[in-house]
Amino acid sequence: MHKWYGKFHVLKDLNLTVEQGERIVICGPSGSGKSTFIRCINRLEEHQQGQIIVDGVELTDDLRQIDIVRREVGMVFQHFNLFPHLTVLENCCLAPLWVRKTPRREAEATAMEYLKRVKIPEQAHKYPGQLSGGQQQRVAIARALCMKPKVMLFDEPTSALDPEMIKEVLDVMIELAESGMTMICVTHEMGFAKTVADRVLFMDAGEIVETAPPHEFFSNPKEGRTQQFLKQILHH
Amino acid sequence: MSNTKDLPPPKTEIGVVGWCRKHLFSSWHNTLLTIVVAYFLVTLIGPLLNWLIFDATFSGTQPSDCTGGGACWVFINQRINFYIYGFYPDPLQWRIDVMFVLLAVAFVPQFIENFPKRKWFGIFGLTGLPVIGYILIPGGHFGLENVPSSKWGGLALTLILSYVGIVASLPLGTLLAMGRRSDMPIIRGLCVIFIEVWRAVPLITVLFMASVMLPLFLPEGMNFEKLARALIGITLWQSAYMAEEIRGGLQAIPKGQYEAASALGLGYWKKMGLIILPQALTLVIPGIVNTFISLFKDTTLVLIIGLFDILGAVQSTITDPAWQNVTTEGYVFVAFCFWVFCFGMSRYSQNLESKLDTSHRN
Ligand SMILES: Nc1ncnc2c1ncn2[C@@H]1O[C@H](COP(=O)(O)OP(=O)(O)O)[C@@H](O)[C@H]1O
Ligand SMILES: [Mg+2]
Q1: Which atom of ligand 1 is least distant from the CA of A186?
Q2: Which end of chain A is more exposed for a tag (fewer CB within 10 A), N or C?
Q3: Shared-domain flag, residues B29 and B159
Q4: What b/e sequence results for B253-277 when a residue is b if at least 16 CB atoms lie within 10 Å of its CB, and e otherwise?
Q5: Same domain for B168 and B279?
Q6: Residue B141 belongs to some domain of the structure
Q7: How far is A56 from A41, CA to CA, in rounded Å?
Q8: What pTM was estimated for this model as a whole?
Q9: ipTM score of complex
C-alpha cells in the first residue's frame, strides 16, 4: 500500500502479511513512517493506494467496515491516552459496554480479570491522573484487551516512560506475547524484540528495508541502512 | 522522622493586628491610603445604611405611612405580588410557586459540597424542570386552566426567559460547536455562518426583528405569540455564544483522546457523548456560567417589545401618582433581585473553578 500526506509520499509500496499469532516488531529511525503505518491498520490514518485487509475485512471509506475492524484491533499509544474523567475500571469497561453491548456485570468482571493480568487490580477505582506512567500504560493495555481483540498494535509503548517503569510494561507485553496474541509493535526495545518477535521489520524513509527473524536481524543484517541503525541503537 | 520541631509562626504574622500591619500600614503611603479610603467608606456607607435600613419604613400599607425619611419599602411590599407574578391570576399563582420550589430543589444542592447525588438534581433542573414548567405555567392540559402568555410577567417572566434561553441553547450550542469542527464542509460552513451572523447582532435587534419584522414575513394566519417569538430569538442568539464557548473546550481536548476513542471502535456520537463532551464541557463551565449571567441581565431588553419582566413591572408602577418619589426604591429592588441570582451563578462557577483546579493538579 501507499500513503501520501499531501504531496509527501510517506509510505512507499509497503507489503506485509501477518499470520495469526505472529509477533512483529517494527523499528527504524524517527520520521520513517512507523506510526503512520500501524495507524493505517485501524484506519486512524487513511491510505490512498493498495489494500489493507484485516481478518478478511478490507478497509475502505465504508464506516461499517472500519467499525468492524476497529472492534477487533486493539491499540496502545505512546502517550497512553487514557480517559482522564473516568476511573480505571470505567476506562476498561467503556468500549465493551457501548460497542460490544456486553452486560455491565460481565464487562466489569472481564475488566478486573485483565487488570489482574497487568498487575494493578487494586487501582481499579482510581483516576488515571493518580497513577504513574507505567501504571497508566498497563491500564491502557488492559483497556485494549477488554475488547478481546484479535490483533494488538503498540506504538512505542515505552518511549514516554521513565527507565524504571519500562520493565513493568515490557513484562506485561512479553506475557501477552507468550499467551499467543497477534502483535504488531513499534518499539526500540531490542531486548523485547529478541525475546518475543517472530520477525523484525526495519523501516526507513517510508519503506520496509529489511525483514528477518530477530537472531538473523541482529547478528547478520543484510542492508547497509539496517547495519547503521543497529550500530547507533546498540551503542546506547 | 524529622527532628526539627514545628515552630509557631512569628507573632506579627498572625491575628488581626498582624494582618492590619502587613496589609494596611506597611508604609507611610499605604497608611495614608488606608485612612483616606476609611474616611470615604464611613461618610458614604453611613448615610446609605441609614437610607436603606435605619430610617426606612418597612411596615404599613399606604404612602402616608412612610415618614422616616429613608426608603419607603412599603411601596415594594404593596406591589410585590405584581413584581413576582405579573398579571398571572391570583388563584393560580401556586403553579409559579411550585416552579420556584423546584428551581430551588434542583440548584441549591449544587452549592452544598458532598450533597448526595447532587449531579442528578442538576440534571433534573436541565431536563425535568423545563418539562414540568412547560405543562404547568401555561396550563391548558390535565384540567389546568389556561393562562395566556400575555398575562405572564415580573420575576417569573424574567426567569422563564433566561431559563429557556439557557436550557435550550446548551444542546443547540453544543451541536453548533460540533458542527463547526466537523469534517464535512457543508455542515461546517452552515454552522460557521449561523454562529457568525447571530454573534454579530445585538440582542435588542434580535428581539425587535422577532417581534416586529418576523410577522411581516410569515404567511397569513401563521403567527405565534410574542413571547414564543422572543424565546426563539433569545435561544438562537444565545446558542451562537454558547457554541463558541464550547468550541473552546473542544479545542482543548488532546487529539489522543479522539484517537483512543476511535481505536476502541466508538462511533462519532458515542465518542463525542462519552469521551469528548464530558471533558470539554467541564472545562468551559465557568465560561458558560458567565454567558448565562450576561443573558440573565440581557433579558431586561424584552421591555422594548412590550413584555413586562421584573424591570418592566417595576418601571410601570413607579410613576404611580399616589406614591411620590419611589423611583429609587424600585430600581434598588430590581438591582437586588438581579444581584441575588447573578451572585449565585457566579459563586457556583467559582466553586467549580477551584474544584477543577485541584483535579487538574493531581
Ligand atoms: N498529519 C501529518 N501531516 C503531514 N505529515 C505528517 C503527518 N504525520 C506525520 N507526518 C510526517 O510523516 C513522516 C512519518 O511520521 P511518523 O509515522 O510519525 O514516523 P515515526 O513514527 O516513524 O517516527 C514524518 O516525516 C512526519 O513528519
Ligand atoms: Mg512514531
Answers
A1: 21
A2: C
A3: no
A4: beeebbbbbbbbbbbeebbbebbbb
A5: yes
A6: no
A7: 13
A8: 0.83
A9: 0.93
A20 to chain B, any CB pair closer than 8 A? The answer is no
For residues B79 and B48, membership in a common domain is answered with: no
The contacts of residue A138 (CB under 8 Å, 6+ apart) are A118, A119, A120, A168, A169, A172
Q: Which three cell numbers stand for residue B203?
A: 440582542
Residues B152, B216 within the same domain: yes
Same domain membership, residue B84 and residue B20: no
| B229 in the same domain as B161 | yes
The enclosing H or E element of A10 equals strand A8-11
Same domain, B173 and B27: no
CA distances B333 to B49, B75, B76, B95, B346, Å, are 15, 11, 8, 24, 20
**Digits of tens for pLDDT over chain B (362 positions)?**
556 777 776 665 667 777 777 777 778 888 888 888 888 888 888 888 877 777 777 777 777 777 777 777 877 777 788 888 888 888 888 888 888 888 888 888 878 777 788 888 888 888 888 888 888 888 777 877 777 777 788 888 888 889 999 899 999 999 999 999 988 999 999 999 999 999 899 988 988 888 877 777 766 665 567 888 888 889 999 999 999 999 999 999 999 999 999 999 999 999 999 999 999 988 888 888 888 888 888 888 888 888 888 888 888 888 777 777 777 888 888 899 889 988 988 888 887 777 765 454 33
Q: Give the count of domains, chain B.
A: 2
Nearest by CB to residue B265, choosing from A67, A83, A140, is A67
Maximum alpha-carbon separation in chain B: 89
How far off is chain B from A67, nearest CA to CA, in Å? Answer: 6
Torsions phi, psi for B189 (to 5 deg): -60, -45
Shared domain check, B315 and B203:
yes
Residues 174-203 of A with CB under 8 A from B: none
B28 inside domain: yes
Q: Evaluate whether residue B93 is within a structural domain.
A: no
Give the CATH number for residue B347: 1.10.3720.10
Task: Give the residue numbers spanning the domain of B41.
Answer: 11-54
Q: Is residue B142 domain-resident?
A: no
Q: Which ligand is nearest to the CA of A26?
A: 1
In DSSP notation, A73-108 reads EEEE-TT----TTS-HHHHHHHHHHHTS---HHHHH
Residue with CA at minimum distance from ligand 1 atom 1: A5
